[in-house]
Amino acid sequence: xxxxxxxxxxxxxxxxxxxxxxxxxxxxxxxxxxxxxxxxxxxxxxxxxxxxxxxxxxxxxxxxxxxxxxxxxxxxxxxxxxxxxxxxxxxxxxxxxxxxxxxxxxxxxxxxxxxx
Length: 116
Ligand code: HEC
Known about the structure:
Elements: H1 2-35, H2 40-43, H3 48-51, H4 70-82, H5 91-94, H6 99-111
Bound molecules: heme C (HEC).
């Protein structure tokens, strides 16, 4: 009797663990792709040829973005998007960004160290 009860409990535990794995495998990737199709790395891929993978620009006439204040970066991107800050290079990069994209991009460059 004791052994039967014990193995039944074990089986229940295993079921619970399996259920958790299924939840992790199915629900989380679905949530991730539904909420945000692009990672910050994908979003900034277009910026790297000019502003550098580490946020340090490739050319002396292009600004460095690494370590810059988040709010400043977001404000500049919104200004390019709205046309209040004019740049033939930056307008095509910014015109179709959403506020959420801009926050993510600003955060990404803000977190890079400017001492590299
Ligand atoms: C073709 C080169 C090029 C590409 C690609 C590019 N930029 Fe720029 N970026 C520039 C130049 C040049 C400026 C300075 C423009 C000006 O005079 O306002 C600039 C300015 C900026 C500024 C303002 C910086 C400051 O100090 O005021 C931000 C923020 C910025 N870029 C972000 C981005 C982001 C984010 C992307 C990718 C989505 C991107 N850039 C792609 C060339 C580029």
